[in-house]
Amino acid sequence: MASITLDNIVKKYGDGFPAVNGVSLDIADGEFVILVGPSGCGKSTLLRMIVGLEDITSGDLQIGGKRVNEKAPRDRNLAMVFQNYALYPHLTVAENIAFPLRLDKGKLNEEQIQEKIHLAADTLELREHLDRKPANLSGGQRQRVAMGRAIVREADAFLFDEPLSNLDAKLRGQMRTEIARMQRRLGTTTVYVTHDQTEAMTLGDRVAVLRKGELQQVASPRALYEQP
Ligand code: ADP
Ligand code: ADP
């Protein structure tokens, strides 16, 4: 686990108005920060810069107190969960979960990999589904597989980009409970983008409001949503 420090982070695509315009935020080790704001305000860009899928134009990004601006995504030890799950259709649930472990060739032996798959499956109630392919799963189950893949990495932090927005209301409620449980159990530093106020209220330690690339407000969910 690790803290995440954003210091005056700027992102310019081409020579237009900056998509992210001087964002500074200290996220404590183990903290769960919700990122909200209107469409196009820079939420995805910010997540993608943290995970390393997008270059930072200027500013300092630190993970666990170390500057990582120039580090490749694979060297940052973060796990991102996307809205569209990004599962491999030809692989079983077990192999989808194990995928990041098999990328790190030789780090774990087969027995250790199997152990991790089963631990993640227990946490996310996927035991019965390990041999199935993503096409045969419900939306909520697919989302859990995507989270399983994040868990087995033992990442320093999780980055979620609207992970529940494609689910119906009932599943969304179940998954919210699932994520809260996972957070209590793992205590991993998390940045979570959502439009859903209930998710922000129930999951977030703090809510950061982004507007036109700038942080407008950072507050506890209670202070933010109960103000007049
Ligand atoms: P959000 O996730 O809050 O909807 P984004 O981070 O996707 O916002 O986008 C922020 C701004 O950056 C928008 O104005 C968007 O059009 C622009 N943008 C995002 N990605 C690119 C890109 N690859 N090239 C050019 N502009 C982009
Ligand atoms: P390559 O560099 O082989 O073209 P990618 O650009 O897809 O592959 O990814 C490079 C590395 O970035 C991967 O090894 C992985 O560790 C990391 N990575 C890619 N996507 C994510 C993500 N969603 N979350 C965390 N790390 C990622």
Automatic annotation (TrEMBL):
Residues 4-228 form the ABC transporter domain. GO terms for cellular component: ATP-binding cassette (ABC) transporter complex, substrate-binding subunit-containing. GO terms for biological process: carbohydrate transport. The keyword Nucleotide-binding applies. The keyword Coiled coil does not apply. Keywords: ATP-binding, Cell membrane, Membrane, Nucleotide-binding, Translocase, Transport. One of its GO terms (molecular function) is ATP binding. It comes from the Bacteria. This is Carbohydrate ABC transporter ATP-binding protein, CUT1 family. It comes from Flavimobilis marinus. The lineage of its organism: Bacteria, Bacillati, Actinomycetota, Actinomycetes, Micrococcales. The chain holds residues 1 to 228 of 421 of the full protein.
